[in-house]
Amino acid sequence: MLKKVLIVGYYHPKNDKRVFRTVEALSKVCNVSYQYISDNENDIHVENNIKFIPILFRINAQDNVLKKALKRIKFDLKVLKVIESEDYDILYMHHFLPMFPLKPFKFAKSKKKMVVYDIHEYHPENFLNSLSGLAKFLKEKIMWKIFEMQLKLADKLIFVSKEMQEDVYEKLGLDKPYLVVPNYASISVEPKEKRKEISFVGKVTRNIEKEKEILKKLIEKEFTFKIIGMDSDVFKEVPHEYTSFLPYEDMMIELSKSAFSLISYNTVRNENYKNDLFALPNKYYDSICAGTSVIVKNTFVSMAKEVEKYGIGVVIDPNDVEESVKRILNAYERYDEIMENVRKYKGNFVWDDRKERDFIDFVLS
């Protein structure tokens, strides 16, 4: 008989790349129930061993704090009801319920179910990351206690980077089975052309003043700059082109045309924000698998280590604008060498059958 797995996507949409990858993989050998956010929560259906359970969730920017909190409580209660009513052997959590952060874990354990916790973010810092001062300090102190209890209640843990896993285990003294599953690209493409162009993929944060100075100087050196997926007034003083949102394969083809992909930003105004330091974001893996070398900020520990290890791009310190420009120009002079490394190692960055088997074996063993 096939095992039954309940995958809680929480606020992720149905086709979120990381979440749906786990759904598709486990549905090959299990019966999967899958909760996710949707505009239509009546579209519950079964398809290819997957029971789709959409839950409506909308917060308007105009809502006051109380209204937002009430909507969040209502949503969390609906998710909790799914956890308490579905039939499963394994509870796979892609995020905790902020209003009831321990309840799903405790409920599953009380029913003798296995709990797998997929930790996308460095939760103690990432949760409510806009707080500052005393509120930030108290939030992180409380969140570390909650996070520790969640991790101890879980049977198996999945992390996006080895550095995040090591940092959490060292801080909490954990000894528990874990697997590192980065945000691998879904496909690999071979570039058909290369332009003297730097791309920025996806959402643009506002704390990138130094990066803009670097781009301006590179444009003086005949580079062009493109934002893939949207336009942004953040770059309004930097000459650039942009594309609208593109389907994944089209985005990869567009990205493959650029010489470099810029991966340097600040999610918050804190250089030591571990959610950034230990991140291995989709745009990093997609860039390499699009056959495009990367420009990575030196404080992004996980990415910088790989870039230097494999020679697949250039690591910069955006605070030193002149040195960063020099490093990028030097990298462009030896671009053939870098591209050879990208071609050599890009298989490490794409989701494939072996990685899928390792993932399934870890969850089910």
Description:
With 365 residues, the chain is α/β, with parallel strands linked by helices. Helices cover 42% and strands 21% of the residues. Strands 3-4-2-1-5-6-7-8 form an eight-stranded mixed β-sheet, with helices on both faces. It has a six-stranded parallel β-sheet with strand order 11-10-9-12-13-14, with helices on both faces. Helix 7 (209-220) crosses helix 12. It starts with a strand and ends with a helix. 36% of the residues are buried. The mean pLDDT is 91.
Write the SSE topology.
Layout lengths: L2 E11 L3 H11 L2 E9 L6 E3 L2 E7 L8 H21 L4 E4 L9 H8 L3 E6 L3 H4 L6 H21 L2 E4 L2 H11 L5 E3 L14 E7 L7 H12 L3 E5 L12 E2 L5 H9 L1 E6 L10 H4 L4 H8 L3 E5 L3 H10 L2 E4 L4 H13 L1 H11 L7 H12 L1
Parallel strand pairs: 1-2, 1-5, 2-4, 5-6, 6-7, 7-8, 9-10, 9-12, 10-11, 12-13, 13-14
Antiparallel strand pairs: 3-4
Helix pairs in contact: 7-12
What would a concise description of this structure say?
This protein has 365 residues and is α/β, with parallel strands linked by helices.
